[in-house]
Prior knowledge:
By secondary structure, this protein is an alpha/beta fold. It contains 14 helices and 9 strands. The chain has helices at residues 19-24, 26-39, 43-49, 52-56, 58-78, 96-103, 109-129, 142-153, 175-184, 208-219, 243-255, 260-269, 283-291, 303-314; strands spanning 3-7, 89-92, 132-138, 158-165, 168-174, 192-195, 230-231, 274-278, 297-300. It has a 5-stranded parallel sheet, sandwiched between helices. Strands 4-5-3-6 form a 4-stranded antiparallel sheet. The two termini are 23 Å apart. The relative contact order is 0.17.
Amino acid sequence: MNTAFLFPGQGAQVVGMGCGFVGAYPAAAEVFSRANRLLGYDLQKICFEGPAEQLNSTTISQPAIFTASAAILEVLRTEQGTNSLKPDVTAGLSLGEYTALYAAGVINFNDCLRLVQKRGEAMQAAAEKTDGSMVSIIGLDEQKVRNLCEQAAQGELLEPVNFNCPGQIAVSGSRDACKRAEQIAVGLGAIKAVPLAVAGAFHTDMMVSAAEKLSIALEKCRINDPAEIKIVANVNAEYYNSSEQIRQGLIKQLTSPILWQKCMEKLIADGIEKFYEIGPGRVLTGLMKRIDRKIKVVNVSTLQNLQELLQTMSV
């Protein structure tokens, strides 16, 4: 094992994402066209032109990030200079795990996009029924974040849910508990506490109703057992072995913590040397610098990134 493809999750979206690829590569344009037909609205227009408030909504941002990432992946697969690039393993942060499963060949594009659409809708509906939020805590270790949650909860739900990299852990729970965590974090030694622009308390029990809806959608979806390409699961930082494990992992993901740091440490320990972040933004590239400074991630989020990659591969 040598090469990993990494895919970003919600929060990576930005107006204009994918536009350069669609203008330059028919393969990318076809991915967006398929997405538009399948979703029944002009996702491409929202991705390219905004408005940002619409793109940032949970129901739009999830299919948008998946489609933009899949379009860039399709260019890498079909362009002569990069079509020799093949992952031994894929991984994605939260929503990005769906793109990772698609890239590994265990779910086809249409089914994956439908799942992502249903996931976004279910999470939005669950968020509207509950009053939750999330806050990113910068500069505290896991134990101190747990202590912070105990102090700020005051009988309400608040727990660490996104273990992104050393010194960056997001907490999730009731809106009031998140506000209290934000206020007292610096007093406990945090560098800062940043409220996240999300609809609700993702990755907690406030998403149980979303997990139930997703479970029904997953039962109807064809998922293959992993074959040549491995996929590392967010919920336990282990490789999926079967389609049933994948179903359970995707359901559990909605109400359980995301162990991104452990996922990356697992891949590094298993000998992965080449990492490519494929999709909008540079979130995963930035997290890797905090996880292991020796590891370089090749970021492919813009047309310029792709052109630089093509130059290095032709040398």
